[in-house]
Amino acid sequence: MSAPERFGARLAKAISARGPLCAGIDPHPGLLEAWGLPVDASGLERFALGATEVLAAETAIVKPQSAFFEAFGAAGVAVLERVVALARDAGALVLLDVKRGDIGSTMAAYTAAYVAGGAAIAADAITVSPYLGFGSLEQCVATGREAGRGVFVLARTSNPEAHALQSAKLPDGRTVAQSVVDAAAALNAGAGPLGDVGVVAGATIAPGELDLTALNGPVLAPGFGAQGATVADLRAVFGDALLAKGVLPASSRDILRHGPDAAALRTAVRATRELLAGPQENGQ
Ligand SMILES: O=C(O)c1cc(=O)[nH]c(=O)n1[C@@H]1O[C@H](COP(=O)(O)O)[C@@H](O)[C@H]1O
């Protein structure tokens, strides 16, 4: 049997076809209410499946946030499984935002859950945390890679509290965040057109904080939209060359607030895609 196509290659193709926007599927209780839905598992189901049907038909990759599903217990996790399947049927890749990270032996169980061949909730990629040491993630990367799946490692996150920890300096002078990027780059060496190990770098961070030029992998850039970052910020933080090669601006609430009407949601996601197309085209 031939090896599955690698995640980085699949993502590069999806970006070429549909643009780089990553649409977040974050069923916040407040959004369920705004959509006129009950804040229970039935409301979650209608919100999440309705949003996925529209967003996964329009974008290269969707990002369901697991916590909003887990909050409803087993019924919520069952909805998450359906979201993953529905998104794939609609032609989008699925980045499951679970931000997992643990000692290697426990990380193996998260790997089996999400990115190994035959995973229970099989995503195309997951978000992972490097704070038990980057090495604790390497088996997950290797196993996911064999199954054609990837990871996005938290490097410099979009939230204001992140700065003190992630921008702390190591004895060699690099920031913690830069060391995460460099470790990801080492695992992506030689891969083309994009490696399977992405990093998370918020669109809200200061320009020049991170050197991503050697990453050779995708960058998830949340913070665009509801957290205040604009297209101009994306250009300032990442530069046109990187924006044209694997930066995925992620937006959740700013798009989802346009539901529940499917046509209005579709118009909103298309408008966001078009907004992003400017720097992409200019960057080539
Ligand atoms: O890993 C993430 O997705 C993530 C990393 C980060 O640095 N900042 C961040 O906001 N996120 C997630 O991205 C989404 C942002 O949602 P909005 O602010 O509504 O666009 C949420 O699901 C967050 O959990």
UniProtKB/TrEMBL annotation:
<dbReference type="InterPro" id="IPR001754">
    <property type="entry name" value="OMPdeCOase_dom"/>
</dbReference>
<dbReference type="GO" id="GO:0004590">
    <property type="term" value="F:orotidine-5'-phosphate decarboxylase activity"/>
</dbReference>
<keyword id="KW-0210">Decarboxylase</keyword>
<dbReference type="InterPro" id="IPR013785">
    <property type="entry name" value="Aldolase_TIM"/>
</dbReference>
<protein>
    <recommendedName>
        <fullName>Orotidine-5'-phosphate decarboxylase</fullName>
        <ecNumber>4.1.1.23</ecNumber>
    </recommendedName>
</protein>
<dbReference type="InterPro" id="IPR018089">
    <property type="entry name" value="OMPdecase_AS"/>
</dbReference>
<keyword id="KW-0665">Pyrimidine biosynthesis</keyword>
<dbReference type="Pfam" id="PF00215">
    <property type="entry name" value="OMPdecase"/>
</dbReference>
<keyword id="KW-0456">Lyase</keyword>
<dbReference type="InterPro" id="IPR011060">
    <property type="entry name" value="RibuloseP-bd_barrel"/>
</dbReference>
<feature type="domain" description="Orotidine 5'-phosphate decarboxylase">
    <location>
        <begin position="20"/>
        <end position="268"/>
    </location>
</feature>
<comment type="similarity">
    <text>Belongs to the OMP decarboxylase family. Type 2 subfamily.</text>
</comment>
<comment type="pathway">
    <text>Pyrimidine metabolism; UMP biosynthesis via de novo pathway; UMP from orotate: step 2/2.</text>
</comment>
<dbReference type="InterPro" id="IPR011995">
    <property type="entry name" value="OMPdecase_type-2"/>
</dbReference>
